[in-house]
Design goal:
Elements (H helix, E strand, L loop, with lengths): L3 E6 L10 E6 L7 E11 L1 H8 L4 H4 L10 E9 L11 E5 L12 E5 L4 E2 L6 H6 L2 H13 L7 E4 L5 H12 L3 E6 L4 H6 L4 E4 L12 E6 L4 H8 L1 E9 L6 H9 L3 E3 L8 H12 L7 E6 L3 H9 L6 E5 L1
Parallel strand pairs: 8-9, 8-11, 9-10, 11-12, 12-13, 14-15
Antiparallel strand pairs: 1-2, 3-4, 3-6, 3-15, 4-5, 5-7
Helix pairs in contact: 4-5
């Protein structure tokens, strides 16, 4: 008899109400995979936008009915024959299979072993799950797509958000002087992360307050990109997360001789996850979890992110 598990899936793109708790067969374990009993899953804006029919929807339409959830943490319960670095009983976390169908909103999930890392002692499943896609995005922006150097003046937009709150902590860890933007209500939170300066983007124009920026993590896109270009030193670096830039944006960056990654694509990496694990383990990195939901309440988790008021991360606990 086939064993079943609970998953949250949707049959068509659209409203959060399309997310339904259903039964699916337990996953098989491939030769290079492990099967994880899921303990926590992080929900990201890309989950929400994909479910709405944007972001990765066109790439994943073939997989409908679709189970999202790229950020997982849990216990290994089965190990593929080629896997050498993990064993049954290990607690692991990672961003799995991105941008392919992840199947993470589920009681059990099969994941490539080389995309995972061990959870450090003393770090909860929830904290580990929260420190995956968003943390990888910030870390790869600073160490792969760009290179922060000690002493750099670094501008981080949306510093109270999922990516932003990790980015502030990581930039400080790398020796940067961090200038962070957020609303006034999140000023104390952003400063608690280690930001050296805070700018209330609702009260002032950040380009009137700062200049000579070496490195900018640009999370908003649109008109803010050229505003960010205006505060950069010649030859500085901008890592841009959203798409939708136009020719004039590129021309503005080229006039200053900036190094720009115009649309950063985060990628799974066991090596990077082990680096993040080390930072979690020694307290360098502390994820902020603003809300927790049960598996059957994934739709409510999506609606919370849709509200635009999320500070830090949203996590599903199983």
């Amino acid at each position: 008899m086939q064993l079943l598990m609970k998953v949250v899936a949707f049959e068509e793109f659209g409203a959060a109400g399309n997310l339904k708790l259903v039964d699916r067969p337990m996953p098989a374990c491939g030769p290079d995979e492990v099967v994880i009993k899921t303990a926590a899953v992080s929900v990201n804006p890309v989950d929400v936008k994909t479910r709405q029919g944007e972001a990765l929807a066109s790439q994943l339409e073939h997989a409908l009915p679709l189970v999202l959830g790229w950020d997982i943490a849990g216990e290994v319960v089965a190990v593929g024959r080629n896997v050498q670095n993990l064993s049954e009983g290990d607690d692991v976390f990672g961003m799995i299979l991105f941008p392919k169908p992840p199947n993470g909103y589920a009681q059990y999930v099969a994941a490539p072993a080389d995309e995972l890392a061990l959870i450090p002692a003393g770090v909860s499943y929830e904290a580990a799950a929260a420190s995956t896609l968003a943390a990888l995005t910030a870390w790869q922006a600073f160490t792969h797509f760009g290179q922060i150097k000690a002493g750099d003046r670094v501008l981080i937009h949306a510093a109270s958000g999922g990516v932003g709150h990790f980015a502030v902590q990581m930039a400080k860890h790398l020796g940067a002087y961090v200038i962070a933007t957020s609303s006034a209500k999140n000023k104390a939170f952003v400063e608690s992360l280690g930001a050296d300066e805070h700018i209330d983007y609702k009260a002032v124009r950040f380009e009137d307050e700062i200049g000579d920026i070496d490195f900018c993590l640009e999370t908003q896109g649109g008109v803010q990109f050229q505003r960010s270009v205006s505060v950069m030193r010649d030859g500085g670096t901008i890592i841009n997360l959203p798409s939708g830039l136009v020719d004039s944006d590129r021309e503005a960056a080229e006039r200053k001789g900036l190094f720009v990654n115009y649309f950063m694509h985060v990628f799974p990496s066991g090596e990077n996850m082990r680096e993040i694990a080390a930072m979690l383990g020694d307290g360098t990195l502390v994820p902020h979890i603003s809300e927790r939901f049960a598996l059957e309440d994934v739709a409510a988790a999506h609606e919370h992110i849709e509200s635009g008021r999320t500070v830090g991360k949203v996590v599903i606990s199983l």
